[in-house]
Design a protein that fits this description.
The complex is a heterodimer of chains A (about 110) and B (about 110).
Chain A (H helix, E strand, L loop, with lengths): L3 E2 L4 E5 L4 E7 L4 E9 L5 E8 L4 E4 L2 E6 L4 E6 L8 E9 L6 E3 L3 E6 L1
Parallel strand pairs in A: 2-11
Antiparallel strand pairs in A: 1-3, 3-8, 4-5, 4-9, 6-7, 7-8, 9-10, 9-11
Chain B lengths: L3 E4 L2 E4 L5 E7 L5 E8 L3 E10 L2 E4 L6 E3 L9 E3 L8 E8 L8 E3 L3 E5 L1
Classes of the chains: A mainly beta (about 110), B mainly beta (about 110).
Chain lengths: ~110, ~110
């Protein structure tokens, strides 16, 4: 059974710092992996979607990588800003025929001015 | 663009009452799903649908019913509410039918069962 883990649960950094958020998964047979952002009291917003055949995806200051062999994905945020403060979640979709995403519990990020 | 719309945003129920959480999307997505989010438990899939007339169970389906009569709407019914169903519920949709692509979420419905 796929398990998705995000460590640390919380992270506080000063503004301007480059940072990396981690996502680990136990089953390397994934179809795709998504990174989401969730602001307090709001729904999730998809940031980046990496297909199984891809190694990374980029959008603005965000870069997500995927290493199936090690069971890891990372979300790199360049030049962090206070507006980046939110909870970041990753979710994997397996290669099976199910339509189920397995979510990590998220990393709560605070970027201090 | 409206995207995924959920109603109500907040609801308080007494144990044993029934209610329906509404979800509508205007993106012509075939895949729609319901999740619940609880502290320390993350997001868990309740039910999902890959098109009108087609529904299936997720990880935690007990106590919930769904139907999909149109592409746009995917209501979630609580038949007899229990305190364990106190949670934040999210509806999500995706443009891919063969599998799940980019997932679009609603703003959530916060339910308290007394």
């Amino acid at each position: 059974k796929q398990e998705v883990t995000q460590i640390p649960a919380a992270l506080s950094v000063p503004e301007g710092e480059n940072l990396v958020l981690n996502c680990s998964f136990t089953d390397s047979a994934i179809y795709n992996l998504q990174w989401f952002r969730q602001d307090p009291g709001k729904g999730l917003t998809s940031l980046l979607l990496i297909q199984s055949s891809q190694r990374e995806q980029t959008s603005g200051r965000l870069n997500a990588s995927l290493d199936k062999s090690s069971g890891r994905s990372t979300l790199y945020i360049a030049a962090s800003q206070p507006g980046d403060s939110a909870t970041y979640l990753c979710a994997s979709k397996g290669m099976d025929s199910s339509y189920k995403l397995i979510f990590g519990s998220g990393t709560r990020l605070l970027v201090r001015p | 663009n409206a995207g995924v719309t959920q109603t109500p945003k907040f609801q308080v129920l007494k144990t044993g009452q029934s209610m329906t959480l509404q979800c509508a999307q205007d993106m012509n997505h075939e895949y729609m799903s319901w999740y619940r989010q609880d502290p320390g438990m993350g997001l868990r899939l309740i039910h999902y649908s890959v098109g009108a007339g087609i529904t299936d169970q997720g990880e935690v389906p007990n106590g919930y019913n769904v139907s999909r009569s149109t592409t746009e709407d995917f209501p979630l019914r609580l038949l007899s509410a229990a305190p364990s169903q106190t949670s934040v519920y999210f509806c999500a949709s995706s443009y891919q039918r063969e599998s799940i692509g980019e997932l679009f979420f609603g703003e959530g419905s916060r339910l308290t069962v007394l």
